Amino acid sequence: MSSDYKKNSLTLFDAIAMGTGVMIGAGILALTGQIAELAGPLFPIVFISGAVVTAFSAYTYIKMSNAYPSAGGIGMILQKAYGPTAITAGAALLMALSMVINESLVARTFASYLLRGLDLPPSGWLLPAISVGVILFAFLINVSGNRSIGLFSTIMAALKVGGIALFGFAALWAGGFSFEATGEGTDLGGLSGFIASTALAILAFKGFTTITNSGAEITDPHHNVGRAIVAAISICILVYLLVAFAVGSSLPLEKIIEAKDYALAEAAKPTLGSVGFYLTVALALVATSSGLIASMFAVSRMLAMLTEMKLIPHSHFGMPGVIRDHTLVYTVFVAALLAVFFDLSQIASLGAFFYLVMDIIIHWGVFRHLRSDVAARGWILLIAIGLDAVVLAAFAMLKLQHDPAIVAYAVAGIIVVFLFVKAFLHFNPPGAEEEHSH
């Protein structure tokens, strides 16, 4: 495996493909049913609210990445805003964990669609076993180097965006452009359910940070990082809306919720028949596997940068290679554990909590310390913070009512992360080795 960062190894199209690869893999396939469960009949509109929140959020990342393109992306932004502190290390680790959580989410989605395609129930020991298997497959692709990842991501992104969009058009056409997902499928719904479900929709777009984390390896990064982020988000909102309305035209709300882990495949049956069903399963397998590969590529580089910045501990555990090789292995290990022990709903909830907390920290840091340096408008940064806070509060309140354990896991996880890095930096202050050598 090549362990050096390679400037200009990812083109603008590669970057867009990586971003859409992560977003579409997790978004429309893994989250449509869960969003419908929370939001009720208005679930397609939730993707618009998620896109609005993401647009304000992306502004910060674009401004920072255009000014300081980096292979560590999120870590770089936090370092610039807060310096080598526990806030930087803790927030960056939350982002890394949310990305690893996304990998386990996508892996379990892959397994659910595969088992459904084989006419087997998406449960039992096969579900985590297949999830771990596709994570290992993504690892093998990643060790082949940047060029292979870029080419693979571009091909897969073209296939799945085109294929899933075709599914949406076909399902809408066959369904007569009607909308069947009406009525109350759960005791949730309403305004609070709509706002809370926006937290999950944000997860469907957060793959744009994959582009940020690969900034130094993208050609002409001062311009192309921002272009890639805008293009990827724009492509995804069109695909999400098309498919969400297609699912709603094919299935009543209660059926969407019942099949929430494989909603697209189930929606293909009534309108497109068995051929459409199996083609949709195949598309889902392509989308999830390529999304997993792109996410793994980015998070391993982010962890490597944090290690090189001496903000988190590192041990090679006897493995050959350099830091980036090792962080890829750590990523695979943690993602596999999550895929084995948590279900899709719990995984998505953990990811939403970690990501939104990290996002607020980033916006606040840029607002307080960097907005003049990168020519960012303060009011946009404050709106981004406010939107994140409202969505996070609504999501937490809803989960406290229906799944308080996952809120406890999230809060405990956030506290442990910050205590861990605080202790590490106390005993290993950044710069200590350099000062000692002088």
TrEMBL record:
It is a multi-pass membrane protein. It comes from the Bacteria. Gene3D superfamilies: Amino acid/polyamine transporter I (1.20.1740.10). Keywords: Cell membrane, Membrane, Transmembrane, Transmembrane helix. The keyword Lipid metabolism does not apply. GO terms for molecular function: transmembrane transporter activity. It holds the Pfam family AA_permease_2. The chain crosses the membrane at residues 12-36, 42-62, 82-105, 125-143, 155-176, 188-208, 228-247, 277-300, 321-341, 347-367, 379-400, 406-425. InterPro entries: AA/rel_permease1, APC_superfamily. One of its GO terms (cellular component) is plasma membrane. Signal peptide: none annotated. It is found in: Cell membrane. PANTHER family: AMINO ACID TRANSPORTER-RELATED (PTHR42770), INNER MEMBRANE TRANSPORT PROTEIN YBAT (PTHR42770:SF11). This is Inner membrane transport protein YbaT.
